[in-house]
């Protein structure tokens, strides 16, 4: 589960449409523009992202870092650690 403080960074990224890269503990990486947060049908925490012009829900389980792909005043990289 993501903490409130961690969730704030996800919301900031969505609000300002800051292009980001999400990295998982298994080495997966997704780059795109975050649009919204929510839950899928399995009640997993997700981030709606524009990835290459396509919108997709990205499950946030076990991700460890969010990196801004453009300079901004809010964050450069946020480390989350593995989510269980």
From TrEMBL:
Among SUPFAM superfamilies, the record links this protein to: Rof/RNase P subunit-like (SSF101744)
Q: Which InterPro entries does the entry mention?
A: ROF, Rof-like_sf, Rof/RNase_P-like
Give the superkingdom in one word: Bacteria
Can you say what this protein is called?
Answer: Transcriptional antiterminator, Rof
What species was this sequence derived from? Halopseudomonas litoralis
């Amino acid at each position: 589960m993501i903490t409130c403080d961690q969730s704030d960074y996800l919301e900031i990224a969505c609000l300002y449409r800051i292009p980001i890269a999400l990295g998982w503990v298994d080495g997966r990486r997704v780059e795109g523009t975050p649009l919204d947060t929510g839950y899928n049908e399995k009640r997993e925490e997700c981030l709606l992202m524009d990835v290459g012009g396509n919108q997709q829900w990205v499950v946030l389980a076990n991700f460890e870092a969010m990196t801004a792909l453009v300079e901004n005043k809010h964050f450069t990289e946020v480390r989350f650690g593995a989510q269980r």
